[in-house]
Amino acid sequence: xxxxxxxxxxxxxxxxxxxxxxxxxxxxxxxxxxxxxxxxxxxxxxxxxxxxxxxxxxxxxxxxxxxxxxxxxxxxxxxxxxxxxxxxxxxxxxxxxxxxxxxxxxxxxxxxxxxx
Amino acid sequence: xxxxxxxxxxxxxxxxxxxxxxxxxxxxxxxxxxxxxxxxxxxxxxxxxxxxxxxxxxxxxxxxxxxxxxxxxxxxxxxxxxxxxxxxxxxxxxxxxxxxxxxxxxxxxxxxxxxxxxxxxxxxxxxxxxxxxxxxxxxxxxxxxxxxxxxxxxxxxxxxxxxxxxxxxxxxxxxxxxxxxxxxxxxxxxxxxxxxxxxxxxxxxxxxxxxxxxxxxxxxxxxxxxxxxxxxxxxxxxxxxxxxxxxxxxxxxxxxxxxxxxxxxxxxxxxxxxxxxxxxxxxxxxxxxxxxxxxxx
Lengths: 116, 297
Description:
The structure holds two protein chains of two kinds. Chain A is of the alpha/beta class. Helices cover 59% and strands 13% of the residues of chain A. Chain A is built from six helices and five strands; from the N terminus they run E-H-E-H-E-E-H-H-E-H-H. The longest helix of chain A is centred in the C-terminal third of the chain and has 18 residues, at 78-95. Chain A is elongated. The model of chain A has no long low-confidence stretch (mean pLDDT 90). Chain B is α/β, with parallel strands linked by helices. Chain B contains nine helices and eight strands. Chain B has helices at 15-28, 47-62, 77-85, 88-91, 114-126, 135-155, 186-193, 205-212, 229-239; strands at residues 3-7, 34-38, 66-70, 103-109, 162-169, 174-181, 243-256, 259-279. Chain B has a five-stranded antiparallel beta sheet with strand order 4-5-6-8-7, sandwiched between helices. In chain B, helix 6 runs antiparallel to helix 9 (229-239) and helix 7 (186-193) packs across helix 8 (205-212). Chain B is globular and about 60 Å long. The interface between A and B is large, with 46 and 45 residues.
């Protein structure tokens, strides 16, 4: 399966609704271990909400290593590469349960130090 | 109904100037208030003040009050020129025609107008020839700045939308953009999200901002991954030696090339201001990841 992103979304991949559209197209095939290619030729602008929904959500059902084998991404510009890589790292951590208690602990400790 | 007169002072963009703005918010933050803004004491107004005062006027109107800018009191020619050029005066019933100059238009977004906002950033903010960067970098910058707007529309709960204004300062070689919402504010949202953890009540506003700027933290539901927008923006600003300031409730965040700082402030308001300063020098810009060349797939 190959999707020409510009034809489906346009040149701006920045909002979650557009990410969701792509997720709905590729989630089924990927969970059946089919290879999917996303071609970003002509897409110039990227932001995290798009990739959070298009790709980050996939990591609920698919292991990161499997996703990296099954999903091919072509013609992605530098910003797109930066954002998607960060989204994958983040989503993998997120779906494995981010430790919010630990973050609160760390910040309270920092607060205490600053008030000394 | 009595009319309250607010004298707009000289307002720059230091923390003390923001405190003046929040003091004005506090003075008019009553329901059913009629307010007249008087410019007779104002001889300087930065874009952060323009965006904030425009939004404040709409906030008053949304509460069934009236907000009037008394143009007859504006005697300072430079301020009048600025407010005409950026379109603010035209938004508030002044008959001036808008020119361009170094101003970047005052903008109101009641709802999320994705292409309108992106065109604004691309054409009016960056695209006027004062930031000499190539097209791919221009696309990268507007993508990162979009995260501010996305954050405001996704998280703030502002019933009246988002207000923006910018300016180019050739003397300082700086480009400013202020984005203001009158939603609940980031600290309030974070405390609410963490309400199941009793210790979260001890988090100060500064602590809540620190939480929000951590990579991967989000106040969205468990089903939606998120929490990268502010982190990516922070990284971009630091790499490019710009400055990002965030005022939200009684918290203040300052992110620049030297690091990040989160402090509590005494004068607060209900909402959030993002104030971003970029340097107009291509030598200060590069892609954050251009040195590692990672390919994700």
